[in-house]
From TrEMBL:
It comes from the Eukaryota. Pfam families: Ndc1_Nup (PF09531). Its main location: nucleus. Belongs to the NDC1 family. GO terms for cellular component: nuclear membrane; nuclear pore transmembrane ring. It is found in: Nucleus membrane; Nucleus, Nuclear pore complex. The chain crosses the membrane at residues 20-42, 54-75, 114-136, 148-166, 213-234. GO terms for biological process: mRNA transport; nuclear pore organization; protein transport. The keyword DNA repair does not apply. This is Nucleoporin protein Ndc1-Nup. The lineage of its organism: Eukaryota, Viridiplantae, Chlorophyta, core chlorophytes, Chlorophyceae. It is a multi-pass membrane protein.
Length: 523
């Protein structure tokens, strides 16, 4: 398999069909929205069927189509790495709101392509907003309801809030369901969010005017704003829904069902890489039918070099990179010992006579001595942005190993070909241990900052806005579930396989620590 990122940058046909599907659903919902807004005072239900008004509504939707395309331009599979400044007496941490604003709105991706897409996003929204205020406001409320400055303000407020809340980053569902039920679940909640984008623009509009705002102008601006923002929000939700649906990369008529999967994993398109991993995870966990047929081709090559080796190595590589990012942020015992001795020496002999603190989640002296902890910031970014990808990698590895134990692996590829079952188990145990220590570390920091400690429940709605310890805890639960599935399938033989490994290149933890963790999970 080619290295990831070396494939040609060609827009896959599957993504084009997804965009077409978003257009169709978006158009149908905008038609319904226009019909509902016709009942608002002054009511103009009969005017909907006049040729002139049909032409105006068609023109307005053409602007919405342009805006929807700009939403697609900024749509991202993952968030961008945080912006930090160190030096010149400027210290901006990645967790500060200044860094978040710079990262998500202004310096997205640090490339000309991202700059152009962001400028196009703001420009398309401004044109659409001005068109709605001018055309829809004049159409329904008269000329006195037109205020183009309000349209520009509305578009800027919406664009900034949309990017700041990471609504452009794909959020995959925990369970893949039919599109109708996802629309039914998300659209009512999306309509409530229109107030979030409308109210700030209206408040700034009212406060910026030196004179009283006429009631007709205010009502016209509000109605046109609501309809315009509703089109934006529905478009964003539809892109989220269709671009997070599974793409089946192999069909029964394919002579080699592994070729499309390997090709997309080797491409430079993060959308298709994520969709390929999602398809692989569902295939690995599927029961019978097409899933079993595809797994047969994965285990068919006795050498493992055709499918099993590249697929497993890719997933293990993702897990290892993630674990190393967490390990770099975790304090080492030697560094803590040195930092503690320095602190005691600076505080004098009386420091050793202090009372015992009953907080078991002690802060790390070595990490707290750093002014800017870039490792912690990068680890938090990895936890949020690789939440789905690491989940799919763990599910894929675990599902294939369990399927091999059921007898689908006739040649013993999982046990004999690299990467083998012991390597997979040690990698999963390593990420469990790293996530466990990382969750303790960030939870301790949060409990010292906040007077009210909120319990971690592991329920994830939006990983970009969720506290990082909750996202890490949910990942830890998923990693433990993967190891538990292997333990149920292989039993004590899993421990014997791990013990026979002489040399293990582990991303985090020693072999003894991982064996102890496995023993507790097997017990």
């Amino acid at each position: 398999m080619r290295k990831a990122g070396t494939g040609p940058e060609v827009q896959p046909e599957d993504l084009d069909w997804k965009l077409i599907g978003a257009f169709i659903w978006h158009a149908s919902m905008i038609i319904v929205s226009n019909a509902l807004f016709a009942f608002l005072p002054p009511s103009d239900v009969r005017g909907l069927f006049r040729p002139a008004r049909i032409g105006t509504y068609t023109l307005l939707y053409m602007f919405q189509v342009i805006s929807l395309l700009s939403h697609r331009m900024v749509l991202s599979s993952n968030g961008f790495q945080p912006v930090t400044f160190k030096g010149w007496f400027i210290h901006i941490r990645a967790r500060s709101w200044i860094s978040v604003v710079l990262t998500r709105i202004f310096t997205r991706g640090r490339s000309w392509k991202c700059l152009v897409s962001t400028a196009g996003f703001f420009g398309a929204n401004i044109v659409t907003a001005v068109a709605y205020v001018a055309l829809y406001g004049r159409l329904k409320f008269g000329a006195h309801a037109t205020d183009l400055g309000f349209g520009v303000l509305m578009a800027v407020c919406y664009s900034c809030i949309y990017l700041y809340r990471s609504k452009d980053v794909l959020a995959y569902p925990a369970i893949q369901r039919v599109r109708f039920f996802r629309v039914k679940e998300r659209v009512p909640r999306a309509l409530q969010e229109t107030l979030l984008y409308t109210v700030p623009a209206l408040l700034i509009f009212i406060l910026s005017r030196r004179s009283l705002v006429p009631l007709g102008l205010l009502w016209g601006c509000m109605a046109s704003c609501e309809l315009c923002v509703m089109g934006w929000v529905l478009g964003g939700e539809m892109l989220q829904i269709v671009f997070t649906e599974r793409v089946q990369l192999a069909r029964p008529e394919n002579p080699d069902p592994n070729e499309p999967l390997l090709s997309e994993l080797a491409s430079s398109n993060p959308f298709m890489q994520d969709l390929a991993l999602l398809d692989l995870a569902i295939t690995a966990e599927g029961q019978g039918g097409e899933a079993a047929w595809r797994r047969t081709f994965i285990f068919m090559d006795q050498s493992g070099r055709a499918a099993w080796g590249p697929l497993a190595s890719y997933m293990l590589g993702e897990i290892r990179d993630f674990t190393e990012a967490l390990a770099a942020a975790l304090p080492s015992a030697s560094a803590d010992t040195a930092a503690t001795s320095r602190l005691k020496g600076a505080a004098g002999p009386a420091a050793s006579n202090t009372a015992v603190r009953w907080n078991v989640l002690q802060p790390s002296p070595s990490t707290n001595l750093r002014i800017l902890n870039e490792e912690l910031d990068l680890a938090a970014w990895n936890v949020r942005n690789k939440f789905y990808r690491i989940n799919w990698c763990m599910r894929g590895l675990c599902g294939l190993a369990v399927a091999a134990q059921r007898g689908e692996d006739r040649y013993g590829v999982v046990l004999l070909c690299e990467p083998t079952l012991p390597n997979i188990t040690l990698s999963l145990l390593s990420v469990v241990l790293a996530l466990q220590q990382y969750t303790k570390s960030v939870t301790a920091a949060r409990s010292r900052r906040s007077s009210q400690f909120n319990p971690i429940v592991g329920h994830i709605d939006n990983v970009m806005l969720q506290p990082v310890e909750e996202v890490a805890f949910a990942l830890e639960v998923a990693a433990r579930n993967a190891v538990n599935r292997l333990a149920v399938a292989y039993g004590d033989r899993l421990r014997e396989c791990v013990q026979r490994v002489e040399r293990a290149n582990l991303a985090y933890g020693s072999k003894g620590d991982l064996e102890s963790l496995l023993a507790t999970m097997l017990a």
